[in-house]
Amino acid sequence: MKTDVMVHCGNSPKMERVIDLTVALAAKDADSVKSIVREDFVWKTVGQEALISFEDLSQKLAKRPDVTEIKVENALSHGKGAMCEGTLNFEDGDVLSFCNVITFSSTAKDALVKEAHTYFIK
């Protein structure tokens, strides 16, 4: 998978973490995702009923379509919140814009992700 991440200061650990989480989700890398999130983590794709829990992560990621390229165009963090947005290119030629809205467990710079809401637009 080709990865194109915006240029940034590199001085925001939580912004780095939200970018790392977004790339790991796109790559379907459950081990990397699990190293960034808490065990009570939940992931919601907005507009879909089901929440994906920590326990179901590997299985659910494996069923998602393969991403050939991710472009991270913007990422921000402040306090317990963060966001990351960009585009995903798929093998079949589809392109989706996305935005991940993240809630960390605390404001600490090494806090793990507690919850993620992902928005997709075709």
Automatic annotation (TrEMBL):
It comes from the Bacteria. InterPro entries: NTF2-like_dom_sf (IPR032710). This is SnoaL-like domain-containing protein. It comes from Alkalibacterium putridalgicola.
